[in-house]
UniProtKB/TrEMBL annotation:
CDD domains: VOC. PANTHER family: CONSERVED PROTEIN, HYPOTHETICAL FUSION PROTEIN. The lineage of its organism: Bacteria, Bacillati, Actinomycetota, Actinomycetes, Pseudonocardiales. It comes from Pseudonocardia ammonioxydans. PROSITE patterns: VOC. This is Glyoxalase/Bleomycin resistance protein/Dioxygenase superfamily protein. GO terms for molecular function: dioxygenase activity.
Length: 136
């Protein structure tokens, strides 16, 4: 039976990406699932959560698929955005925010964009107007 696995992010520096994403998501780099081309990040229960794959291609400025990291409140969103930027994330020049967004767009140290979504304000006005999530 076909099953959905976990998201994989292409990166040029596996060690830097593994350090950022494991700190960002409170994950551990799995020694069992590591190579010169690959890192698997796992939760405390051993569940594989995120794959990092060595890639020479540059990150897409507006990828069709991206990660949404979820928080429950606006205060938590602000705190997490601050924590993630302290870990090395950046605020890319994003010009497509709706009038009252429930998300903040960040980029990891490799330049891969992702969103921190405040579920207390979801869905954002861009989704309620019928715009697809992937257009963020």
């Amino acid at each position: 039976m076909l099953r959905l696995g976990f998201p994989v992010v292409g990166v040029t520096d596996l060690d830097r990406a593994a350090a950022f994403w494991s700190a960002a998501l409170h994950l551990t780099v799995s020694a069992e699932w590591a190579s010169a081309q690959w890192r698997t990040l796992t939760a405390t229960d051993g569940t594989r959560v995120l794959g990092l794959m060595r890639s020479d291609s540059p990150p897409e400025p507006r990828p069709r698929v991206h990660l949404d990291l979820l928080v429950d409140t606006t205060a938590e969103q602000t705190a997490e955005v601050d924590r993630l930027t302290a870990l090395g994330a950046t605020l890319p020049g994003w010009d497509d925010y709706p009038a009252e967004p429930d998300f903040v767009v960040l980029a990891d140290p490799e330049g891969n964009v992702f969103c921190v979504v405040d579920l207390s304000r979801a869905p954002s006005s861009s989704m309620s107007e019928g715009a697809p999530i992937l257009e963020r």
